[in-house]
TrEMBL record:
GO terms for molecular function: transmembrane transporter activity. The keyword Transmembrane helix applies. It comes from the Bacteria. InterPro entries: MFS, MFS_dom, MFS_trans_sf. It comes from Candidatus Brevifilum fermentans. PROSITE patterns: MFS. Residues 1-428 form the Major facilitator superfamily (MFS) profile domain. This is Major facilitator superfamily (MFS) profile domain-containing protein. Gene3D superfamilies: MFS general substrate transporter like domains. One of its GO terms (cellular component) is plasma membrane. The chain crosses the membrane at residues 12-30, 50-72, 84-102, 108-126, 154-174, 180-201, 236-260, 272-294, 301-320, 326-348, 360-384, 404-423. PANTHER family: MAJOR FACILITATOR SUPERFAMILY (MFS) PROFILE DOMAIN-CONTAINING PROTEIN, PTHR23528. It is found in: Cell membrane. Keywords: Membrane, Transmembrane, Transmembrane helix.
Amino acid sequence: MQETPPNQLTKRNWAVMFALALTGQIAWAVENSWFNTFVFDTITPDPRPIAWMVAASAVTATLTTLIMGTLSDRTRTRWGKRRPYILLGYILWGLSTILFPTVAYIKITLLAVVMVVIADSVMTFFGSTANDAAFNAWTVDVATSETRGRVEGVLNLSVFLAQIVAMVAAGMLIDAFGYFIFFYALGAIVILVGFLGGLFLQEPDGSQEEPVSRPPFWKEFADLFSINTFKENRMLFILLLFIMISSIGMQVSFPYMIVYLENFVGVTKTEFSIIGGAVMLGSGALAIPFGIAADRWRKRLIIAIGIIISSLGGIVFSMVRSLPLLALSGLLWQAFSVAAGIASVAWLKDLLPEESRGKFLGIRMIFWIAIPMVIGPAIGSWLIRSYGIPTHLAGQEGFIPVPIIFQVGSLITLLSLIPLALTRKQKTVQDERD
């Protein structure tokens, strides 16, 4: 098989990138949204298991990306550097997705809760190995500074399309066929696309050669947490702090959003699909020009505007009840959050050390996934249990989420403006004009 020239993107690689990105993002979007409603609808209405599942999944994703990302940086095989992890990882990711809903057969609630947390974590391990660690590092490997923007465009387009599929198709399919058929179909698609994409993926020259001399694996892994790593990448860590706080704010409410809309507002899954589809389409239309503006003008100013509008949108979202107003406020909340995220992640990737991209993408996971998804849902669960509406579902006691989760989450998101302001003290090649 012919290898791609170093840091160049062929038509085949563009096609593979889009297919793997889209499929992976659909799987993550479903996991972030419908796994939570699955637990509420089929196991227990208690919000704590959702918080536990989200937290366990986040920690698993982060540790997996750190370890497997570092390992893939060091790997050289006849199949290439990243391909083995992508090919096998996607296949096992799909299989674990197919098996996930079987936990509903367990009739002992406590055991079912334990097993659903384990099942989600296993699925997350394979997904993070394939997508977060190997695939994302591969997209950095094959891109240059001249193509980085287009690569980010493809990756973020896949996010938008995946969210549309997860919001529009998923709710309707679950209403029509139930959770089991839906998860079976999703898992089969992940297996098929992962298998074909892994086979046709091309890696840069050198992916089969012996790696340059590097320290032992665990020493290199431990170096991620050294003071020197922080000092040498100070700007990167300040930006990660911004991402962490803004993500915590989003995670206070996001895991419970569909449960809130169904059980507090009275929106059906199909109606939510319509609202979600409109919000995602609008988000794409707003986020792309927003990202272009961030490239041309001051990144931190554009990001700050996005954070402020998103937070206001989240607060308004908690106050309205009609479908049109939910869609409009949801658009402000999500679109400008996504737009700020696009600009900040593109900025972050420009700061990644060239020889350690895989492991530094793992560091990003600590601030972007692990900490926010442990702290945010825990805050949301506490708010729901403290202020939510008591309910019974299939003999189980629980609480219906209430608007305060969106209001508190939005206020926390606004706190991310503090580390964003600190970036003014740092100068980098990629920094915009001040």
